[in-house]
Give the backbone structure.
Amino acid sequence: MSYRVKITPGARSDLKRLYVFLAEKHKPSAERSLLVLVKAFDGLGLFPHSYRRSDPKDPTLREITIPFGSSGYLALLRIRDDLEEVRVLAIRHQLEDDYL
């Protein structure tokens, strides 16, 4: 079974924020980072339960590590089995404190 992947408005805002931050330093890297993130999100629908749990008390919250450069990104996901849907809730750089 394949799940539909939805990127929430909050996650879209995170993508823009991360892009702007990196583009100010090196625009080609910012472009590549978007491509890496989109490619990672494309594969989420195949095996969403294979990603690590973000909260041990909530099996629907998962986190995916997306390598990029010397570190990478983390994306917070919610799996909705009833809707056959994976929602990307938030995205952050691995060096950020937590999801904003």
